[in-house]
Amino acid sequence: MDSYKPLLGITMGDPAGIGPEIAVKALSKKEIYEICRPLIIGDTKIIKRALRFTNLESLNVRGISDPSEAKFELGTIDVLDLNNVDIDRVPLGKVSAEAGKASVEYIFKAVDLALKKEIDAIVTGPINKEAINKAGYHYTGHTELLKKLTKAENAVMLLAIEKLKVAHVTTHVSLKKAIELITKERVLKTLRTVHESFIKYFGIKNPRIAVASLNPHAGEGGLFGDEEIKQITPAIEEANAQGMNVVGPLPADTIYYKAIRGDFDVVIAMYHDQGHIPIKVLDFYNGVNITLGLPIIRTSVDHGTSFNRAGKGTAHPGSLIYAIKYASMMVQNLKKHETLS
Q: 3-class DSSP state for residue 211?
């Protein structure tokens, strides 16, 4: 079981951003080929250009049309070539509909392969929300798009670094809208998804889940808001009645200290910045974005396209490297879980 190397489809991301550069940097490393069979889903022309930017021209690029043609050899990057980018129409570091369209097409292809079980998991490079919307794909990000493509009932964003994992009840909405979305049903659905996912993908039999409060001091008994009393606490009580191991709501200004100390396996944040800030303060370069609740395994970099750095060869590949490592680990744990079930 442990010797199995998952086949990972790595989407190139927006061709005008740093995605291609971090992809070739990651696949230049022996450690990646020791844990998986990496396949870039993108455009061969862009990958070859990225090799020049990163001084990795000693690497070869093999364009293929089907995953079965890949050889997964260190020193040669296998690219499932969609050949969908006109370099002259996609300038580096610029938002464009052409680049947005191409980046979404890589996701479509990866999801299709994963649903058909032709690849074990997908690892996504950074896309640009403005670009994909210009191309006519009106989504606020990967998570929402993947939820629709896979017809998943629920999709939960989990951010992961070595010392901390944080899942989110809400993500890309205004703070005002996020507060409106904090309902017992939504919190409970998030708890179920996280609980089940940590058993299947992280190999934790009884995951310890801590729920952050929405309001200061967990509402101070209703003095600073009643969402804890009316929505969050009832969801926690129901989750525990269903056999989960959940504590909270705990004040958000202390919950992360306790999690880092090792008291919990995962923290549930109520809104985007409440979960993102501690992750990025602790480890800005190596965070991984994981989508829970899908019928496929998906990990991603936890950063954007960084247009201002595109073409300079200086982009840090750490987040993508860890996303590949998490995807490989999750595939292994899922196989063990399925064997035991």
A: strand
Query: Can you give the pLDDT at residue 197?
Result: 97
pLDDT grade for 218, boundaries at 50, 70 and 90: confident
Closest alpha carbon to 302 in 282, 314, 329, 284: 284
pLDDT surpassing 90 at residue 332: yes
Confidence category of residue 151, pLDDT binned at 50, 70, 90: very high
Decide: 168 and 157 in contact? Cβ < 8 Å: yes
Q: What's the CA gap between 44 and 121, in Å, rounded? A: 21
Q: What is the DSSP letter of 42?
A: E
Closest CA to 44 of 18, 13, 17, 83: 83
- What radius of gyration do the chain's Cα atoms show? 20
HSE of 275, CA atoms in CB hemisphere, 13 A: 30
* Tokens, residue 55: 């001084």
Q: In which residue are the tokens 């939504």 written?
A: 186
Range 250-265 average pLDDT: 97
> Residue 317: which of 10, 5, 22 has the closest Cα?
22
- From residue 318, give the alpha-carbon distance in Å to each of 29, 300, 324: 12, 11, 10
Q: Which residues contact 245 (CB under 8 A, 6 or more apart)?
A: 206, 207, 208, 209
Interatomic CA distance for residues 160 and 291, integer angstroms: 11
Mean pLDDT (the chain, rounded): 94
| pLDDT recorded at residue 2 | 57
CA nearest neighbour of 51 among 20, 84, 18: 20
Task: Establish whether the linkage from the previous residue to 126 is cis, with ω within 30° of 0.
Answer: no
